[in-house]
Design brief:
The chain is α+β, with helices and mostly antiparallel strands and 334 residues long. It folds into 2 domains: 104 residues; 220 residues, no CATH class. Helix content is 25%, strand content 24%. The strands form 3 sheets. Strands 6, 7, 8, 9, 10, 13, 14 and 15 form an 8-stranded mixed beta sheet that branches. A 5-stranded mixed beta sheet has the order 1-2-3-4-5. It has a two-stranded antiparallel ribbon with strand order 11-12. It is globular, with a radius of gyration of 22 Å.
C-alpha cells in the first residue's frame, strides 16, 4: 500500500517520492525530516526528480510471479528521458537504504557541489570543520559544541558550492556509530523510539531558521579527530593498535598541522562522484586549506579526545575578540 507523496530538497535537487510502500515511507519521512524542514523559500532547487519504490516480478513460469522475496527497485525520473533504477537489498526496502540512495543521487546530479566527509558548525561569522573516520566522534563533538552556542550545519557531510564558496547546511538525521560510553553522549544525543537504532532527529534551528545560505565565511579551523592516543611521526604502533612509544598525556594530544597536510586531509575527505570535475575541485581545496588552521587531536580516551578538541578550537583567534568555546575540566564532561 502506498501513502501520500513526500518531498524533500537535497543539495540542488527536489525529490518527489510518489509511490513508496507505507512501511518504508513512515521511517523515510523521519530520516528526511531535516531536509523537509528547511526554511521555506530559502533555496531555489535546480531540478526535480520523481521517485518510486516498487517490487519487481520474481522469475516464474510466466515471469510475473510475485513472492515475498521479490526484489525491490527504486526508480528516479528526471527532466527529459533521464531515468535511473537502483536495486534495493533485502526482502523489503529499508528506509535507510532509500535515504542513502537519494543522497548519492543528489550528489551525482550536483556537479558544482563538492561534499566532504566532515561535520560543519557555524557561530556568527566563523565556522569549523571536524573530520575523522566514521566513529571518531564527529557527531558527539558537534553536539557538544552546539551546547556552546554553535549552530550545527552537518554532522557527517559538508557540501560546498565551488563557484561561490558557500558552505551549505546538510540536515541529515544524526547517527552515533562510535564506541563512546553512554556518559559521553548523555544529554547530547536524543534518540527517538520512532527512528532506527542509534539515529536521532537533526536539530534544525527555527530561530533563526536554518537556510541554505550557509555560514558567512569559509571555515577557519579544521579539527582532525584521532580518538585513540595520537600516533604522529615516530610513534610506533604495536599489537592491537596500541603505541609502543611514549604515551603522551591527554593534555599534549593537540598537534598543529602544516598547510600542506590540511589540504591533504581535505582531499582525502572528498566524497567522490561522477559529476565532480577534479580540475575544479583541487584549486578550491587548496584555497580552502590556505585559510584554515588545522589540528590533529587525540587522547587516551574518547572523553579526552573531545576535551582536547575544545582546547584546540580555543587556539584559533575569534572574530573581534569574541569569547572562547568555554572549556570545562574533563571530569565535568565525562
Amino acid at each position: 500500500m502506498n501513502v501520500q507523496p513526500l518531498s524533500c530538497t537535497i543539495l540542488d535537487t527536489r525529490f518527489l517520492l510518489e509511490a513508496i510502500p507505507e512501511e518504508t515511507a513512515s521511517g523515510l519521512s523521519l530520516l528526511l525530516q531535516g531536509f523537509r524542514e528547511l526554511a521555506p523559500n530559502s533555496h531555489q532547487f535546480l531540478r526535480q526528480v520523481q521517485v518510486s519504490v516498487t517490487a519487481t516480478p520474481s522469475p516464474g513460469p510466466d515471469h510475473s510471479e510475485w513472492t515475498p522475496n521479490s526484489p525491490w527497485v527504486m526508480e528516479l525520473r528526471g527532466p527529459g528521458e533521464w531515468t535511473v533504477r537502483i536495486p534495493l537489498p533485502g526482502s523489503f526496502p529499508d528506509p535507510r537504504e532509500v535515504e542513502l540512495a537519494l543522497i548519492r543521487q543528489a550528489m551525482e546530479l550536483s556537479g558544482d557541489i563538492l561534499v566532504l566527509h566532515a561535520a560543519a558548525l557555524a557561530r556568527e561569522e566563523e565556522s569549523v570543520l571536524v573530520v575523522g573516520e566514521s566513529g571518531a566522534g564527529k557527531t558527539t563533538l558537534s553536539l557538544l559544541l552546539r551546547t556552546r552556542g554553535w549552530t550545527l550545519l552537518s554532522d557527517d557531510l559538508a557540501p560546498f558550492h565551488i563557484d561561490d564558496s558557500r558552505l551549505l547546511p546538510f540536515p541529515r538525521a544524526l547517527h552515533v556509530d562510535g564506541e563512546y560510553p553512554p556518559e559521553a553522549v548523555h544529554g547530547l544525543f536524543h534518540p527517538s523510539r520512532d527512528f532506527p537504532p542509534d539515529y536521532a532527529p537533526f536539530p534544525v534551528p527555527t530561530d533563526p531558521p536554518l537556510v541554505l545560505a550557509g555560514a558567512a565565511d569559509l571555515p577557519k579551523c579544521l579539527l582532525y579527530l584521532t580518538p585513540r592516543a595520537d600516533r604522529g611521526p615516530g610513534h610506533e604502533v604495536g599489537e592491537r593498535g596500541h603505541g609502543r612509544g611514549v604515551n603522551h598525556p591527554a593534555e599534549s594530544e593537540i598537534h598543529p598541522l602544516p598547510g600542506a597536510e590540511v589540504a591533504q586531509i581535505l582531499h582525502r575527505s572528498v566524497i567522490r562522484s561522477r559529476s565532480l570535475e577534479v580540475d575544479r575541485a583541487l584549486p578550491f581545496l587548496i584555497e580552502l586549506g590556505k585559510g584554515m588552521r588545522g589540528f590533529r587531536v587525540g587522547g587516551g580516551s574518547p572523553g579526552a579526545t573531545l576535551q582536547n578538541a575544545l582546547k584546540a578550537l580555543d587556539l584559533v583567534p575569534r572574530h573581534q575578540g569574541r569569547s572562547s568555546s568555554g572549556v570545562l575540566p574533563t571530569h565535568d564532561l565525562f
